[in-house]
Fold:
Amino acid sequence: MRLIVNKIFLALSIFSALVGLAFLGWILITLFMKGLNSFHFHLFLDDLIDGGLRNLIVGQFILAGLAAAIGIPLGMAAGIYIQEYGRGRYANVIRDLSDIMMSAPSIVIGAFVYAIIVVPTGGTSGWAGAIALAIMMIPVVINTTDNMLSLVPRELREAGIALGASKYKVILDIVIKAAKVGIMTGVLLAFARIIGETAPLLFTSETSNYFTLDLSESFPSLTVSIYDLANEPEKASRDLAWAASFILTVLVLVINLTGRFITRNKK
Structure:
């Protein structure tokens, strides 16, 4: 009887996996077919106003890069504190808050940044968008750093201290180096998550049809423009949305595969 039940559940599990893969394949095939039909290299040379995506791609990378510059140091510092210094209530509070923030809807984070930055400053800006993305990135980096440092054997720490090294030197030169591959993988996955986000930017940075490096005003972003272009009545705009979606999907896929390749190489 147990063997029959086991086979039934195994069959249901395989069926569910195949259904999920079928839908994923359907989405990717549709995206690649429509995206490739609209893809041409002038997309990287012209701005949106001229039928290209240059300003949007550059703007998206600037926003994600600023978010990473803010989120990675803060997230790593918090993760190191939790694992190496924090004990008891404070460490547990930070860990619990991090877990809650990881599951928070991105649109809620966008609304929060809108309330504390966009409204007081009187308008959307690139800074607000970068801060919203950084808030999304921080809990992922905290969780990754915390988990990877917990896998480093305690004996390595004790050996460093026995040799006369201070605690911060042991952490920097021994513990972090031992966990650097796992931490780097988590950072790449966190970056892949924020670079494809739309909802927070709708509230904070919006988008622009023109190339600009002024972060104090509405800033061009690929994800928000995909949303806007997909709602346009002109076929040319919708084709541009498909091309932008294709580029974004390939970019996220490459970042994810890079993270997994680094981990597999290390193993």
Q: What stands out?
A: The chain has a mean pLDDT of 85. The chain has two domains: 1-37, 42-266.
